[in-house]
Amino acid sequence: MKLTAWATLASVLMYIWVFAKVGKARGVHKVPAPLTDGPVEFLIALRVQANTVEQLIIFLPLLWLCCIFMSDQIAAILGAIWVVGRILYALGYYQAPDKRSLGFLISSVAAIGLLISAVTGLIIH
């Protein structure tokens, strides 16, 4: 479980980075809370953060189900791939919305791998 805990920590640190980017964008583009509308650059940062939250809700349970019922190593590897995918998604999106696809694909494949592993582990056990 220790490896999966590291993957969990990495996902939280990645989210903190994304969250901080929204805060920075608020300051740079003068969009005070609780406003959620502003220049495109701010909206992109906000969209990356919102999409990351949406994905974390799916990722974290699958990560731990995979760890518990399949393998700590498999969960950690897929978890690390997911985090890398989310970072690539964010970096691509910050450049231009059409550059987010590769990161989204990588993180989606990792999440599907976690889902398949979790279901398989539950069936086996």
UniProtKB/TrEMBL annotation:
<dbReference type="GO" id="GO:0004364">
    <property type="term" value="F:glutathione transferase activity"/>
</dbReference>
<keyword id="KW-0812">Transmembrane</keyword>
<feature type="transmembrane region" description="Helical">
    <location>
        <begin position="74"/>
        <end position="96"/>
    </location>
</feature>
<keyword id="KW-0472">Membrane</keyword>
<dbReference type="GO" id="GO:0004602">
    <property type="term" value="F:glutathione peroxidase activity"/>
</dbReference>
<dbReference type="GO" id="GO:0016020">
    <property type="term" value="C:membrane"/>
</dbReference>
<dbReference type="Pfam" id="PF01124">
    <property type="entry name" value="MAPEG"/>
</dbReference>
<protein>
    <submittedName>
        <fullName>MAPEG family</fullName>
    </submittedName>
</protein>
<dbReference type="InterPro" id="IPR050997">
    <property type="entry name" value="MAPEG"/>
</dbReference>
<dbReference type="InterPro" id="IPR001129">
    <property type="entry name" value="Membr-assoc_MAPEG"/>
</dbReference>
<dbReference type="GO" id="GO:0006691">
    <property type="term" value="P:leukotriene metabolic process"/>
</dbReference>
<feature type="transmembrane region" description="Helical">
    <location>
        <begin position="102"/>
        <end position="124"/>
    </location>
</feature>
<keyword id="KW-1133">Transmembrane helix</keyword>
<dbReference type="InterPro" id="IPR023352">
    <property type="entry name" value="MAPEG-like_dom_sf"/>
</dbReference>
